[in-house]
User: Which sequence fits this backbone?
């Protein structure tokens, strides 16, 4: 918020009192921000927990706020979203592979894993969900 205020041309000495006023009036709430950030990145960008955590740390949020923000994510919705992402990506990969060739299928599965890792999902959950998405 300090950076935004400075970008708007607010004098450096005026920044702390403005921020204090915004906090006391309830306009700035880090816990609410953490929850909204985690929910938003998950729902709209389909990010996994790891990527959300990394971005929240990059923004300077404490571990407590990060945990609070992640608590807003439903495990059921989390696995369903991952399943949907994996299914959609697998359909794209499936067109390009020879299903009778083991190496081709394994290479496609590895691409699927890499895709989900890049989105920030946890590796153990990815492999568990791939079993449901990829038959054979």
Assistant:
């Amino acid at each position: 918020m300090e950076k935004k205020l400075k970008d708007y041309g607010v004098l450096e000495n005026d920044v702390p009192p403005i921020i204090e006023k915004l906090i006391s009036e309830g306009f700035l709430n880090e816990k609410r921000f953490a929850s909204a950030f985690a929910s938003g990145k998950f729902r709209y960008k389909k990010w996994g927990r790891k990527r959300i955590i990394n971005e929240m740390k990059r923004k300077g949020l404490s571990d407590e706020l990060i945990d609070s923000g992640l608590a807003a994510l439903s495990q059921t919705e989390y696995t369903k979203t991952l399943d949907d992402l994996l299914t959609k990506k697998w359909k794209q990969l499936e067109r390009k592979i020879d299903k009778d060739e083991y190496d081709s299928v394994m290479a496609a599965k590895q691409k699927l894993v890499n895709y989900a890792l890049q989105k920030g999902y946890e590796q153990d959950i990815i492999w568990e969900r791939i079993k449901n998405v990829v038959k054979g």
Notes: The helical segments are 2-7, 15-24, 30-45, 49-58, 63-70, 75-94, 102-119, 123-133. The two ends are 51 Å apart (CA to CA). The mean pLDDT is 90.
